[in-house]
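QA checklist item 7 of 12: single-chain prediction sanity check.
[x] sequence parsed
[x] length recorded as 330
[x] structure emitted
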Amino acid sequence: MTHLAPAPAFSVPLETVPDALRGAVVAIGNFDGVHRGHQAVLERARQMAAAAGVPAVALTFEPHPRSLFRPDQPIFRLTPPPLKARLLKAVGLDGLITARFDHAFAGLSAQAFVDTVLGDRLGARHVLIGWDFHFGKARAGTPAFLAEAGPAAGFTVDITAPLADDTGGAISSSRVRDALAAGDVATANALLGWRWRVTASVRHGDKRGRELGFPTANMRLPDDCALAHGIYAVRVETGGRRVDGVASFGRRPTFDNGAPLLEVFLFDFSGDLYGRDLTVTLVEYLRPEWRFASIDGLIDQIARDCEKARHCLAQAAPVSPLDAMLDAPA
């Protein structure tokens, strides 16, 4: 009997890169958001790898370097590692290699990064970086340095320019964060090329939604989440199902003005969700979070929010083939 070797894991740490992912075309970056600009770079890496008959991989860093250098200024992460891996696999890469970004790694000289990381550990054949990529101790490594040092370590280098959208603005993770912080879901999703989503565990709340006639699944998002407080039309993935709904993210000013929570009311759904992880996709921003003078006023507004959400969700189609892939159960 012939036993086939198991396929290598898609996401691996830098310390244990399997032979199957060595000698690859390597795209380097944080890739937070895997937005349309990232996707263009990754597609170029995939095409180059296919032409050369080698794998295409991404080299990224965890935690985000800013978390190490500026821990007092947490960055709004668009794609935590599991979602980033899902996106990178969906765009056609063969692997995701993650370097643990600690003080020791940050202290590597630029030349040591080239020799030990890209040369010895990855055996890179070709490297793609953005025009503003810096690396090594004190960020001494520049794109020009890498392009010059690469051939001696066995690889060539491609430096990519930023991709602009229809307005002429550069597509960037910062612009996506700014759009989400402003409640501009349409712009954020257009820049991403997929609808932004979050995954969190359902926790017990004060059961207030049930008393109002709109029972909600309550989730705590990461402290760095800078999403605008307000009401959203959403789609929710749970147990292999897709369910439409309406969500409130905010502090509940009519009641306690407490810590921010994401509260999701699922349409035409019944079941116990406590302890489950839900993936909530933002389809449309409906309105800001308001304080109501009466409970009856709040109930009436929630009913109007539900009607508006149902209407927009009935017309919502995937924003791209990638978005459609993400909408398929994981």
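[x] summary fact logged: The chain has two domains: 11-160, 195-319.
[ ] second reviewer sign-off
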